[in-house]
Specification:
homodimer; alpha+beta; seven-stranded mixed sheet; 33% helix
């Protein structure tokens, strides 16, 4: 008789979200101060009458960044922004970060100074303190992990699981540009590797390159909500692409949604480069990721408030769950939107 | 004329603490809520009437652990303990952690389940919630970063910079055992690599191996302080060895110190293995590290309280700065203690 083989499961079978769910399912809750654990942009912790939000994110060399075309200063800046974006997505304000750095011996003190210049510059811009961290060597490359804390009043928090059918779906800025910036940088790297005298052709697409290398967390949007006395019914930041994020909101809220292709904001440079690369701009917007824009929903009664928000587009509507999550194409056809994410495994 | 060369500095010239100081010197403070930033076991953040403490620590494969002899379950457990130990060293209680994991494709779902079993087991034992994290792939190996949050009342906090001449120097548990456990595991690995049929000889030194692979953060000591209504004048946890930690306390407090060799607690197995390895047990205690015991100072008036604390030894005295930081050997001679740390670069 054949001996039974022990079966091992590749992490790709579960994907990032599936894997986190799988590993943390059924964990006990011991602390009354834990209001929200895993499953939103940040954890929510009660501290007396205050509310603390906390999040963490890592950037790994060779996975999230390529130092061939990523200046260390921009890398430091981006590592902070990725975390601050998660705090803003809770409608909270970031207050402190901790920086953990693992580096191989190829990095000199001068290189780390430049990296820290980027980290400090991001903190200065957003009024955030660097309060801790640790530094260690690594056998190869660099890994930069940042944890961020923020504060807000509990009634101001915006979660992912509180959208309601009828709500308007809104997004800040424009989408797909960071992804296209990355494609451009990758192409120029290939050109450079095959001809070391080649000069990169980036001027025409400076906006896209900037979106990839130096994203900006949308504090201005949160400030504007506050001034307009507007509170989204749900919110998430766009790190994995519009498709993935609207899926999170709908799955967690128990709703469906429709997004209108024609209303999704796409920058003219993104349209142009997508055409050059024979890519569909809406696909870049749906699945590209790294936009660090805010995707939020607004109650119908707030339509007049939302309509006049600067740099915000209304792109669709939350529907009952049985309607599914769909894209209404410019040609008038409906397409089912599929969840994305876990691009790095 | 010779062209001036741009000089690059190797990180080893500064060491871990020098490098962190160098990179974070003169950073701005924007948030009134930041009570203590870099430079203690954990950051201290005000939140209304409450106080939050926050810390972060990473374990990198090939630097901090070797999977040849480190079971994944123990690795997960230890990664949590290292962080909780920093929270207890502030005389605070840990409440939440976030887990960031970067892994190469060699890790299966089943392997990660075992790792998480260790993480969950540590959290259960200390009543701590896992509230977030992120998971990503890495080109090679594994890196595990944990951030921990804790809470306490502000007047209960114990810092590193508040020791006073005349204070008693105290330590929990025993020292040097984790370092000797590591030496033993490394030796057995060499034996195994040269003869795959060899069986590891660990039984005689099970205490030492346990101290290396499965350290326990000293919640019991903090509980005892609370029951005895005792507040240390300063405290730090022992991660880099007694020498390094007493140096931190003295440098930051502006004091000297004397430690009596004969009073430093060393386990009998540690004494024995040190003898086998031709090592000086006190050197292992001073410079070995990874003990995760608590080193604290007590006002003279608290002598009677401290004397009756379980598993706590009084090992020396804080002195004025001009006395230096010295070891009084069992032979009656004084030796200057040198700072350690940064073993991983």
């Amino acid at each position: 008789m054949a001996q039974e083989e022990k079966k091992f499961t590749d992490v790709n079978e579960l994907g990032e979200f599936g894997l986190i769910d799988h590993l943390t399912r059924g964990i006990d809750r011991f602390q009354a101060s834990t209001i929200k654990g895993i499953g939103d942009d940040a954890a929510v912790i009660r501290s007396g009458r205050n509310t603390i939000v906390a999040t963490t994110d890592s950037l790994v060399e060779g996975i999230h960044f390529d130092l061939t075309y990523t200046p260390l200063k921009h890398l430091g800046y981006k590592a902070v922004m990725v975390n601050l974006s998660d705090i803003y997505a809770m409608n909270a304000y970031p207050t402190q970060i901790m920086v953990s750095l693992a580096i191989s011996s190829k990095y000199t003190v001068e290189a780390l100074e430049v990296l820290y210049d980027g980290i400090k510059s991001a903190c200065q811009r957003h009024g955030v303190d660097i309060v801790g961290g640790d530094m260690t060597s690594a056998p190869r490359g660099m890994m930069l992990n940042i944890s961020a804390l923020g504060q807000t009043r509990e009634e101001q928090l915006t979660y992912r699981n509180t959208a309601q059918p009828g709500d308007l779906i809104c997004v800040s800025g424009d989408l797909g540009a960071a992804y296209l910036g990355l494609q451009l940088l990758e192409r120029e790297k290939e050109v450079y590797l095959s001809d070391k005298k080649a000069q990169p052709q980036l001027d025409e697409y400076n906006y896209l390159v900037g979106r990839q290398l130096k994203p900006e967390a949308r504090k201005d949007i949160i400030d504007m909500f506050d001034q307009a006395e507007f509170l989204p019914t749900s919110m998430i930041d766009i790190s994995d692409g519009l498709a993935s994020e609207i899926f999170h909101i709908c799955t967690q809220s128990g709703t469906g949604a429709v997004i209108e292709e024609a209303k999704v904001p796409i920058h003219s440079q993104a349209e142009k480069l997508a055409f050059d690369f024979k890519l569909d701009p809406i696909t870049c917007a749906l699945s590209g990721g790294e936009d660090y824009e805010l995707l939020f929903t607004a109650a119908e009664k707030d339509l007049e408030k939302v309509r006049y928000l600067t740099d915000v587009a209304i792109i669709g509507k939350i529907l009952p769950a049985d309607q599914g999550v769909r894209l209404l194409s410019s040609g008038g056809r409906y397409h089912t939107i599929k969840a994305q994410g876990w691009k790095h495994f």
